[in-house]
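ok trying again, last paste got cut off:
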Amino acid sequence: MKSDALKKLIKEAVKEAIQEELKEILLEAVRAPKQVVTENVQPAARPAAAPTQTGPSVREKYSSLLDGMAQSRNGNLNMTSTDAQGFGAGPAYQPPASANTAGEGSALPPGEVSLDQVMGMIKK
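nice, full thing came through this time. structure:
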């Protein structure tokens, strides 16, 4: 007998044995008496009253922050664009006239470009 044929016979026998065992297990599970499960559930305790704050209230924290800001700005909490100059903002950036932002060979010819020229570059 060839080994392939022997393997095939063994596989079939194992499959049959497993199917029979599974059939018996399922029948036992179906026929077994059902146990009624009851749970002892105790009602959850109601939470105690809301905890009291031991630290400063939100209003006190907010007012202390405002006071600190007012002191750092010499009492002036209103800011304008002139105040922003102190944050490092400078005049608008102007690139030099000789700056080439296009890649080499990809710049358009100087002057105006007509729509016909643009349409000629687009492949149909």
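cool. The longest helix spans residues 3-31. The mean pLDDT is 76.
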